[in-house]
Amino acid sequence: MKYRSQESYVNFVRTDQLQGSCCYKNIKMERLKSNFTERVRSVVRSIPKGETLSYGQVAAVAESPGAARAVGSIMKNNHDKSVPCHRVIQANGSLGGYNRGGEEEKRKLLQKEGAI
Known about the structure:
There is one protein chain. The chain is built from five helices and two strands. The chain has a two-stranded parallel sheet. The termini are far apart. The protein is globular, with a radius of gyration of 17 Å. It has helices at 6-19, 29-45, 55-61, 68-76, 102-113, and strands at residues 53-54, 88-89. The longest helix is centred in the N-terminal third of the chain and has 17 residues, at 29-45. Helix 3 packs across helix 4.
């Protein structure tokens, strides 16, 4: 069965779950995860030098409000240098972690770009 969007697929799964007929082997969570990961990476690639977004803001722009922790996990495990994950910070303004040298390296990069 094809779905027009991730949203329609999720709605289909929710409907099945509510009706008690959901079969977990049919849930293509990897596909959903993959689409979300790609949306997050796309959003982060679009953050201009000198600007930052919070993990929650990235999640909202990626059409998954409330998924800030998932964004953090994606950034933590990101090894694609074309994704400037140092531009994603915590909502309270703290820098958060950085998988390529730690918080101090993240601070240096953001200072160099004029974001902080």
